[in-house]
Every structure is written in C-alpha cells, then in structure tokens.
Amino acid sequence: MPYFTRLILFLFCLTALVESRKPKRRRSTGQLEMTKPSHLYKKNLDVTKIRKGKPQPLLRVEDHDFSMRPAFGGPAIPVGVDVQVESLDSISEVDMDFTMTLYLRHYWKDERLAFPSTSNKSMTFDGRLVKKIWVPDVFFVHSKRSFIHDTTTDNIMLRVFPDGHVLYSMRITVTAMCNMDFSHFPLDSQTCSLELESYAYTDEDLMLYWKNGDESLKTDEKISLSQFLIQKFHTTSRLAFYSSTGWYNRLYINFTLRRHIFFFLLQTYFPATLMVMLSWVSFWIDRRAVPARVSLGITTVLTMSTIITGVNASMPRVSYIKAVDIYLWVSFVFVFLSVLEYAAVNYLTTVQERKERKLREKARQFPCMSGMLPSRTMMLDGSYSESEANSLAGYPRSHILTEEERQDKIVVHLALSNESNSSRKKGFLKGHVGLRIFQNTHAIDKYSRLIFPASYIFFNLIYWSVFS
Length: 468
Known about the structure:
Structural class: alpha+beta
Strand content: 15-25%
Number of helices: 9
Distance between the termini: 134 Å
Number of strands: 14
Radius of gyration: 51 Å
Order of helices and strands: HEEEEEEEEEEEEEEHHHHHHHH
Low-confidence stretches: 26-42, 370-401, 403-418, 425-431, 433-439
Shape: elongated
Largest sheet: 8 strands, mixed
C-alpha cells in the first residue's frame, strides 16, 4: 500500500512539471502568450529626475568674509537712504512720543556680491540672505520701541545687481521720542524728528546720506490724524559727536504738526465760557433769595473745577503754565468772584437791615423827634446849622437829643426820605414790579452787571489775539 501511494504522488508531480513547461494560450484570441526574456524589460529613465552635479552659485557668499565692511581699510563707504512714510499712527502728549510706519531703504555697492550676467538683470532675495552678508547697521536715535513686520514673513527685501550695487529695504514701525512745548496748548504747533544713524561705524568708515536730497522722503497722501494737521515733511542731516567714540552721520526726518482747535472749543472753551455767563445770572436774582444765589454759585464753581481736572488729566505734568490753563483759571476766578460778590452783598444787606431796625426802635421811643427836622436843614455830618440851633433854644433840655441819638435819627430820616422819593419816581415809570426790583437791588449788583461782562470780554480779546 505505501508503495502504491508513492507511485501516484510521483506521477502527479511529473504531470504538473510537464504542464508548467507548455506555452500558454490566450483565452480570447487563442494566441500563445510567450514569456519575455528579462533583458527585454529595460526601464526608460526620466531625464528630468536625473540628479546633476551641484550648480555653481552666482553669489559666492562663502568665498568672502562679510563680517568686514566693503573696501575695508579704504575710504568711507557711501550708503544712500530714502524713506517712504506709510502712516503716522499716533501722537501722545502724555508720553511725548509718536508712532510711525515706514519703508526704509539703503543703497550701497559691495563688489564681493558682483556676478556675471549677460542680461544685466538683478537678483532679489528675502531676509535669509541678509544674515550672510554685510548690511549697514542703521538704528533710530531716541526710539522707544521698534520692530520689523513679519506677517506673513519678514518684510525684508534684498536686491543685488550684477555690478555689486545692493538695495536693502524693510518695513518698520517705530515709536520715538518727541520733545513737545505745551506753553501754547491747545493753540500750538509741534515739530518732531525721527533720527537715523549708524551704530558702530563713524564717518570715517560709513558715510550716511540722503540718496536724492529732499526727494528722498516720500509720504502717503492719505496720511491724516484726528487732532493734528500735518503741515510739512522735510529732511536734514548733520554730524553727531560722542566723546568716547567720535563723529557719526545722522539723518533727520522732520515733520510739523498743527493742532486742530475745534475739538477743544467744544470740550473746554465753550463750557467754561457758559459757566462764567451762568454765574452772572445771580446778579439779577433777588438779593434776599439766598438759596438760589448760593446754589448757583457753588454749582458753577464745582463745574469749573471738573473742567480743569479733566483737561489736566489728559496732559503731561509740566512745570509751566499752558494757554488753556490761563483761560480756565481766569474763568474760574470770574466764577469765584461772583460768589464772593453775593457774599459781600448779603453781608452789607444784613448790616444795613440791622442798623435800620435799631434806628426804628429808637424812633418809636421818641416819636416827636422823628419828623421834627426836615432833611434840607441838616448838614452832611449830622450837625445842625445855626438857624436850627437858635430855633431849638426854646425847647426844654429833655426834648433835645444827644449827639449819638441825633446821628441815628438823621440816618433814619435820610434813608426813609430817599426810599420814598425813589419809590415815587419808579412807580410812575415801571409800576409796582419795577419798584420792587429796584428796592431789592443792591448797588454792588448793579455795578457787577456791567463790570463782570465787560472785563471778561476784554480778557477774551487779549487772550485770542496773543495765542491765536
């Protein structure tokens, strides 16, 4: 049995070997499908994917030492500069600074970057090449903060020409100091400067200059500020000396700003003027209306204090007087004087009423003497003339008043006669209402109605003629 099984397995394997060596037939066409030799399957190579040798760079950066400036040991290398101001972002009076966004461009020649070119076309690079070559070390003098924009990549451009000329441009936002004079605030003009200078190279190594003179500074026509009118942009240059390092070329971007006054007229000057005019209303209020006049005076004083505090809160704490301080404090003095005016009126009215009350009480004690002497026979100092003295010779001693009592009676008689005469005249002209106003109006109020407005108008004429 095992021998028979082995024979069957042998015949089966022999049959499978014979079948594998027979040629295959195609099912659809009946053609024989021959197996191709391996030497016929040679792969065609893609020429575009063949790695050639390393190309030779046009800029031989690795062959030179760019830690030294061009033409080291020779004359100073000239570096031209031009600036395009994109925006003037803000002006801060409290911090005394300004923020500006600009395009800063440098021009110089470095023969180490020269390359052969048949078409004389330049090559443009981004900020990665800047770290490998020499560039001018220009910085902003008196700057507080500055940065190069990096959205979506570093805003740096380097353009190299075949003869070695280089254009280096970058977009920068800088916040720099501006020394402001607020003695005429808010009727002032401010001049600020952005200063550029080489940090390491003196004028013997690097000559910094404006490439096209005054045309080197360009500004966007859409630049505007809410509180200022930009009057002028111009450039200057000079040498700056440091005692420990030497002389350096310094470039200046100067611009003049004129402040808009309309905002301060609405927020400061008009409210202050209205408060002063409101304080004058108390001159036409009855002097006996104490609550009305006192509350009006205190309200105007507190309002003026609030206006002064609000203006100074948005200003730097300077040690000199500003133009707006003069106007506000003079207005405050006018308001305060109107309160003092009523204090004087109220005091004098109280004293006068007290005296009249005492004199009336004395007049009731001596009714025979109250109308005894006409006002026309009395001397201004309270004494009697000789004719009246002789006419009184027949009266008993007890009916003749003492000197002090006689003075009081004269004052009472004069006051009553004057009031009666004035009441008669006013009654015919203005009626009962006019008579009441006249009788209750103190002389100080009448003078204040003219003096206060005239003085304030005179002050405004001088103020606006000097500061505007």
